[in-house]
Amino acid sequence: MRVSVDSGRCVCTGTCAFVAPQVFAIENHSELVVLRPEPDESLRDLVLDAEEQCPTGAIQVTG
C-alpha cells in the first residue's frame, strides 16, 4: 500500500492525523507530513478511513 497527498488540495484540517497518527502529522500548524508513505498492512483500515474522511479528497491510497 502506498499513501500520497495532493498538497494543492490539502487544507490541513488534521482529520487524517487524528484518524491515523501513525501515518499522518500536521507540522507547523500548516503542513501535512506523511510519516509512512508505505505503511504496514496492519494500518490499512486506518489509512482508508483517513482517505475517506478527508474533506478535500487530497489523500490517495494505492495498492
From TrEMBL:
Keyword Cell wall biogenesis/degradation on entry:
no
Q: Which cofactor does it need?
A: [3Fe-4S] cluster
Query: Which UniProt keywords are present, listed alphabetically?
Result: 3Fe-4S, Electron transport, Iron, Iron-sulfur, Metal-binding, Transport
Q: What does this protein do?
A: Ferredoxins are iron-sulfur proteins that transfer electrons in a wide variety of metabolic reactions.
Protein name, entry field: Ferredoxin
Question: What lineage does UniProt assign to this protein's organism?
Answer: Bacteria, Bacillati, Actinomycetota, Actinomycetes, Streptosporangiales
